[in-house]
Specification:
Number of strands: 5
Shape: globular
Order of helices and strands: HEEHEEEHHHHHHH
Helix content: 40-55%
Bound molecules: glutathione
Oligomer: single chain
Number of helices: 9
Structural class: alpha+beta
CATH topology of the largest domain: Glutaredoxin
Largest sheet: 5 strands, mixed
Protein name: GST N-terminal domain-containing protein
GO molecular function: glutathione transferase activity
Pfam families: GST_C_3, GST_N
Strand order of the largest sheet: 1-3-2-4-5
GO biological process, one term: glutathione metabolic process
CATH class of the largest domain: Alpha Beta
InterPro entries: Glutathione-S-Trfase_C_sf, Glutathione_S-Trfase_N, GST_C, GST_superfamily, Thioredoxin-like_sf
């Protein structure tokens, strides 16, 4: 009886492996996704030693958006992770705690909300500030970066209320950007958060230096880095789903390997 169960189990495993291989082949043969709306299953790029599944998986769309900050933290701190890229299928809906992305798995922990994810990763990698005062300052710049993101459309209309708030906030960030780090004497979450504050000279220099760090430079040229879409490049207002067309082709490695949620 036991032997029969053993044989049945190995036949089932071989069947599963064949199905997996076929899924990978048809995934690779499908045309490159041109937009986020592509009806294509998620793909994964592993940033961990081969054959060594990492504890951490970050799921987001094949966009920078709310996924870019957690990706930058993971890349900068060298935490091994699987980077999962979703397209238009909505397969995350049943398990994403609030039905949205990004979602982070860290061992048995499953969390959403980009701010909670960024803070969890910052604590895990000890870049959340040294003492209580530094932690508070890190939080302050992190919240500033979130505020800036929420009113970034003000860039199209500098005379609007959002445009004026944006300019005032950027000026504050610029004034605090004299040294190598926003808070304390080493990298913290506060340094990773303002990655999009380009138009100001000190901030621009800071972003350039940040991008030149070996871990970040490697990431920016890797399959994990996705191109911008028209909705994100700051050149025109957001135009809904049609605006999520990639401005440059996705790197083939980004969408080569299919991914399914654990237990699916
Ligand atoms: N407050 C959430 C917002 C998450 C959110 O708005 N996610 C959007 C993409 S940026 C999403 O999942 N949209 C698709 C959906 O709702 O199914 C966070 O910061 O993570």
């Amino acid at each position: 009886m036991l032997r029969r169960v053993g044989i049945a189990a190995s036949v089932a495993a071989a069947g599963a492996a064949t199905l997996q291989r076929r899924a990978a082949e048809s995934h690779a043969a499908a045309p490159a996704p041109e937009s986020l709306a592509a009806q294509r299953p998620p793909s994964v790029v592993r940033v961990a030693p081969l054959d060594d599944p990492p504890d951490v998986t970050l799921e987001y769309f094949a966009l920078r958006g709310l996924g870019e900050l957690p990706r930058l933290i993971l890349e900068l701190t060298g935490i091994p992770y699987d980077s999962v890229y979703h397209f238009g299928t909505g397969v995350y809906k049943p398990y994403a705690p609030f039905g949205q992305l990004p979602v982070l798995r860290d061992g048995p922990l499953l969390i959403c909300e980009s701010g909670a994810i960024a803070r969890h990763l910052a604590r895990k990698a000890c870049i959340d500030g040294g003492d209580a005062a530094d932690k508070a300052r890190v939080d302050m710049f992190f919240e500033l970066a979130k505020d800036l993101t929420s009113i970034k459309s003000g860039i199209h209309d500098p005379a609007s209320a959002d445009g004026k708030r944006l300019a005032a906030m950027l000026a504050t960030a610029e004034a605090n950007c004299g040294g190598a780090h926003f808070v304390g004497s080493s990298t913290t979450l506060a340094d990773v958060a303002p990655g999009s504050l380009e138009p100001y000279p000190k901030l621009k220099a800071f972003v350039k230096k940040f991008a030149a760090q070996p871990a970040i430079a490697e990431y920016l040229h890797s399959d994990r880095r996705v191109p911008l879409t028209a909705n994100e490049d700051g050149k025109q207002p957001h135009s809904g789903l049609p605006g999520y067309k990639f401005k440059e082709p996705l790197r083939p490695g980004t969408y080569a390997t299919p991914w399914s949620p654990p237990g699916a």
